[in-house]
Amino acid sequence: MFQSFESSSDPxxxxxxxxxxxxxxxxxxxxxxxxxHSDEYQSEYLPRSAERLAxxxxxxxxxxxxxxxxxxxxxxxxxxxxxxxxxxTDPSLFQIESLIDNPxxxxxxxxxxxxxxxxxxxxxxxxxxxxxxxxxxAKAGIQLVALERNLIDQIxxxxxxxxxxxxxAHPLKFAGEPAEEKLQRLSAMxxxxxxxxxxxxxxxxxAWAFNMRGADVAHTPLALGFAMLSASGRPKLFLDPKxxxxxxxxxxxxxxxxHAPAELESVLAGLAKGNAKIGLDHGxxxxxxxxxxxxxxxxxxxxxxxxxxPRATKNETELNGARAAxxxxxxxxxxxxxxxxxxxxxSLDEITVVKQxxxxxRVVGEETQMPLRDISFDTISGSGPNGAVVHxxxxxxxxxxxxxxxxxxxxxxxxFEDGTTDVTRTVALGxxxxxxxxxxxxxxxxxxxxxxxxxxxxxxxMDIDAFARHALWQAGLDxxxxxxxxxxxxxxxxxxxxxxxxxGKEKLLAGMILSNxxxxxxxxxxxxxxxxxxxxxxxxxxxxxxxxxxxxETLTLVPIDRRLVEPALLAPEEKDWLNAYHRRVLEExxxxxxxxxxxxxxxxxxxx
Length: 608
Hints:
It is built from 19 helices and 29 strands. The strands form 9 sheets. A 6-stranded mixed β-sheet has the order 4-3-2-1-5-6, sandwiched between helices. Strands 12-11-10-8-13-14 form a 6-stranded mixed β-sheet, sandwiched between helices. A 3-stranded antiparallel β-sheet has the order 15-18-19. The longest helix is centred in the middle third of the chain and has 26 residues, at about 315-340. Helix 4 runs parallel beside helix 5 (about 125-140), helix 11 (about 265-270) packs across helix 12 and helix 14 packs across helix 19. It has 3 domains: about 10-155, Creatinase/prolidase N-terminal domain (Creatine Amidinohydrolase, Chain A, domain 1, 3-Layer(aba) Sandwich); about 170-310, 3-Layer(aba) Sandwich (Creatine Amidinohydrolase, Chain A, domain 1); about 315-595, Creatine Amidinohydrolase (Alpha-Beta Complex), CATH 3.90.230.10. The mean pLDDT is about 95. It is of the alpha+beta class.
């Protein structure tokens, strides 16, 4: 079982830990300390050894920050985690603020006092984070203090050891391009920009550039480490030697000079001497690297991670792998949904649902000789009011029995070597109310709007986000998360820089895989989300048109619950899309499932 149902949150431990931290702050003559949810690689999902925010506060979400002051403690989270933060932390200790509307820099600017010394670990904050933070607090006369040692690490006595799982090569039949060619392309990019060296700090960048995978992070096949690329000369790869042995060592040694991570600072300092131009991605690279380069005589050049766009724009091998992975996943999901429909809701609970879905994925992987390597994130199985918690994670403490008359929201994904999947379906348990059907159909209209969209080259995610919200907005409704995130190729289920959101500034390019997942959440009652993965298609001329237009190909092949659809709310082209989608699901998934599931699938995909 890849998913655990244990709760790692213990809000009762927060007060004594904060008190010990404040004592250490006093010794350092600090009035405050910033504690982000991050590690030196700026990972979204952290190894246990880097879960400092969770250890201190009890909050286990994947985005947040704490500001610990002498007399106050503030936890900043985004709208996905507001409910979770209140449930997991000590309300008498932590004040909850919005990470988006009132982030730490704005809070300090409004509430800080002149002369305050706020400490931070420069390994855990990006160059851009520190730049904007420093600019904001300077107006209030606040001083930022870069610490040599992390204060939480000094009091976290039973801190787990950093992960050291084995690294393995990612075969060319899945990657589609040899690592040697990728590294040559990246070096040429440096030369074109007049940059001598760059540091890759993001684990997915290493995984893609070197065609390697690891297991240092839950549900994502990443090896944590660093790499240095040069305009001329061999790359340097900084990985814990315990991760690299046998065939993996031979493979990587053929691509790069291998170093231990502890050597990074001395190697970078040596290369920076003589005013060398060191390219650092200010949104990914740690502030510590900027300080090191400049103190060693180097010149920091703002430089976007050169792997970002090549990694995001999948090659044909990766796209074919994604299509195959989604066929496999569609078969598993069909078996799961048929199984769910055959059971009385009252005989099931949220954890049973999670276990059964993972088992179906495992079995389909075995049948197709493409084993399930992992789930791509902890499955969200939210029934009734738990479905309204956007990033709900079921534990033994929160587990609910299913009940007729409720909705069940299941958001899940798989990691196969040929592709990463992510799909959400909301299912009616018994007879849904008219309100549920109305809200579900409005969400479906938004998902269809994105699916049908044609758009010119140069369009950004922020330009199309409103299409998914239009029907909800017309009814005075909305959702608090983005409409879509990028997805990797047997990598992270969340991948940038592409996204469909109000903040999605990256142009959408052919080959980018994104999610399409509008939703609606009625707190305390139910949640609705419908999610397919889509890929941007090459621009083509529309008959009679003047401009070549991109579109989207839908990858996910899973029935949408017709019992929740109100046909009267759908326009003719929306009904046509839904019926065509269901015909495709039946044609492509039907041959991959057993007889009883095929019979259920035929009924589930009948025309609206």
